[in-house]
Structures are given as structure tokens and as C-alpha cells.
Design goal:
It is built from one helix and 13 strands; from the N terminus they run αβββββββββββββ. By secondary structure, it is mainly beta. The strands form two sheets. Strands 3, 4, 5, 6, 7, 8 and 9 form a seven-stranded antiparallel β-sheet that branches. It has a six-stranded antiparallel β-sheet with strand order 2-1-13-12-11-10, with no helix packed on it.
Amino acid sequence: MQNAVIVRWSLAALILSIPILSPVLTQAQSVSGSARAVQATVVTPSGLSTSTLADTGTLSGPTDARDASQPSGSVDSLVTAETLHATTIGSTDQVASEASVAGLTVSIEGTIVNAGFAQARATTGNKGVRSTTIHDLSINGVPTDASGARNQTIAIPGGTVVINEQTGSVVNALHIVINGKADVVIASASANVQ
């Protein structure tokens, strides 16, 4: 009899706690994601100037999907690329973003970076991934191996090239910096769920 009373009180306590717990159990997760094929920031006499190519912008909510593509693009004489593509897709508990370029040439202060193809991917969920794919990379005409390691850094005159740059929820296929002159990010993708 005493066990039956304890079970009834336990069930009553559980039933009464459901309204208190339900906001916690049903609260929607916050998602964010974006993708961009090229972002180039240069120092000019009047300050910094930033240009983007094939930029999705940021997801507006968990059911948003954005795409930005163009057959070719350039930022002055700094960057030229073909087949620029960027996409980001959200759902209630996942985000998938990717950006890619082909036929890439970046020319800054005498340093030339070429790639036949560069892609960055960022996904969340059980199988969340931050990865890059880079083919036919060369720096100043010298073939360069993209090892696949995160944040592989190569010194260049006046700056660095970072391959497979990963910081938080963002992955960049290539990040080229010439100190005090230019900062160029190629194929950037971000994905985050909170």
C-alpha cells in the first residue's frame, strides 16, 4: 500500500513538472551559416576596401537556404576566378555550407597564388565536418602540396598563405595575407547550431 502511494505521488510530481520542462524541451535551436567564394580586403589611401564575389549572406533562420553563383569574377587585378559557387542550407538542427572556385589567380605585391580548384565545406550535426579540397595549388610558380592538415601555413614575401584555415565554425580553403596591403580569403564556409 505504501509503495502504491509513493508511485502515485511520483507520477503526480512528474505530471506537474511537464509544463515547467516543456519550454526547455521544445525550444528551437539557433542556426547560422554562410558561404562566400571570394573576399578581398585591400588597404587604400582612404582606408580599407572590401569586395566579395558569390556571397550568400547569413541564413535568416532554420528553414532558410541561400545560393550565390557566377560563371566568373574578379576583384580589380587582385583576384580572378571561374565557376564561383556558394551555398548554405539550414534546418532545425543542422546547417550545411560550401563555397568553391576554379581557375583561381591571386596576385598581390608580386606574389602569385594559383589553384585549379579550391573548396571549403562546413556542416553540423552528428557527422559535422570542416574540410577543404584544393587541386593544382602553386605559389609563385612552385607547386605546393595541400597536406590536408588544419591551418597549414606557408610563408611568402611580406605575409602568409594559410591552407585549410579552421577557426571555430568557419573553414577557409585559402587565406592569403600580405601585411599592410591585402587580406584575401578564397572559398569560405561556416555552419553553426546552438
